[in-house]
Amino acid sequence: MTENKTNTQPVDPLKPYKGRFKTYGRIPAEGRNRDDIFQELSVMAEEENARWQNGRVSGTFYHAGEEHRAFLNRVFSLFSHENTIQFDLCPSMFKLESEIIAMTAKMLNGDAAAARNPDDQVCGTVTSGGTESILMAMKAYRDWAREERGIASPQIIMPHTAHPAFDKAGQYFGIEMVHAPVGEPDFRVDPQAVEDRITDNTIAIVGSAGNYPYGLIDPLEQLSEIAMQHGIGMHVDGCLGGFILPWIEKLGYTIPTFDFRLPGVTSMSADTHKYGFALKGTSVVLYRNNIFRRHQYFSLPDWPGGMYASPTASGSRSGGLTAATWASMLYLGEEGYRQAAKAIMDVANAIKTGIAAMPELTLIGDPTFVISFRSEKVDVYHINDYMKTKGWRFNVLQLPPALHFCVTMPQTFTPGIASQFLGDLKAGVDYARSREGTTAETTALYGMAGTVEGNRQMTEIMHGFFDYLYSL
Prior knowledge:
Number of strands: 17
CATH architecture of the largest domain: 3-Layer(aba) Sandwich
CATH class of the largest domain: Alpha Beta
Shape: globular
Structural class: alpha/beta
Number of domains: 3
Strand order of the largest sheet: 3-11-10-9-8-4-5
Strand content: 5-15%
């Protein structure tokens, strides 16, 4: 903890404003001045922006520049009060969302599905984020399998590296999520292990493009064949890579086929608020045909309040996010996305080449825009401890211990960022070597995972952590 400059009390980094600004536990009797409120929030925003605008944060802020953000905020303000579910009062919302869906489907080669089978017309919905996109697809498979095949105890097979949103879907919707192992050296899912786990209750399988821990694309072509052979669904999670892999591929990089060109792919998720460079809070879930999408919808015809229906889990959503997403896609266009992908890959390639030259470190797989690495010679958690002192924020991986850095546009705005990164990383390796035999601070968070008792303890810690964050 650091010292609070206003009251000389230790500052909790998770609650840095405590003691600096008044804490509200009730609505004030009289409203505050607008300028004062804005000034207080501006201080918070300025301090938090300073943490990532220097390009030292992995992923998190998928930001295409201040001018782009200002433009999206202007667009948002036009529709901030509109509600996407009120289709009669806000008809612009379904125009914009229909076009967002169509543009995303085109980008992910939905035409290939229709060319193979005219009945397959890729369709989808806009959601509030990648988690909701994944939840909706899993719910659609559950209901499809129950209605079409009478499966009451559904199972979905997913790589152990797939996003936790799939496990969340299993918990929410009563689906058994069967984890398939990933293997060294690249930690992609083993297709044979997936097929070995298929039972009469299997309704779908999952692959990532790319997965969150390592940014790698699972062997989707083989998974597609397995899904077709067994007549089950296949979801490709492109929440991370969906809006950058198409452009990396167009730049001439060798990228495994990951989209609707694969005949077994029946659904995909892709986040517009990541490499689509929209404001936070939007994603797209796509289906090969409307048979699956209709199982996503919810309707209640006999409610006393009138007939109720919603296409996604969300009810009300701000139309500002939809409008800003549409505007982002139109403003950037294909050329803008290609240019962004090139700038990102230039930085990523420089970092990747530098890491590969460090004998203490081992790259995991063949990275693209996410560079993950491990070490058998030093403790990577010590490296993380050191890099934090230099202002870098990695994503810390476990099972096995590793680190990753996801390159986004902020890195491309900082001249010499790759050299800075590699210089500090080399010093971090030297630091880790000097700390051999000691326990890294990072280990305190990740050292207990992988055992039943450890998981139980970590669950309690994480739940308590949220309780603490929501306390005044």
